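Pasting as-is:
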Amino acid sequence: MKRERSWRERDAETQTGGRTQERRAGRQGEIVSGLFECCRLSHYAKVQNACRASPQGSV
């Protein structure tokens, strides 16, 4: 259960501070953010599925 929480916290961090760091990186940041966005979306779907499956699914 601890792992799921840490992933949620990381996801929240990416939504807030992650993008500003990517913008500072410039062009390389755009490419990274594009790839990272795909990874984040697929991971977010996995997390949502895990939340639905687990009894403590309140986000």
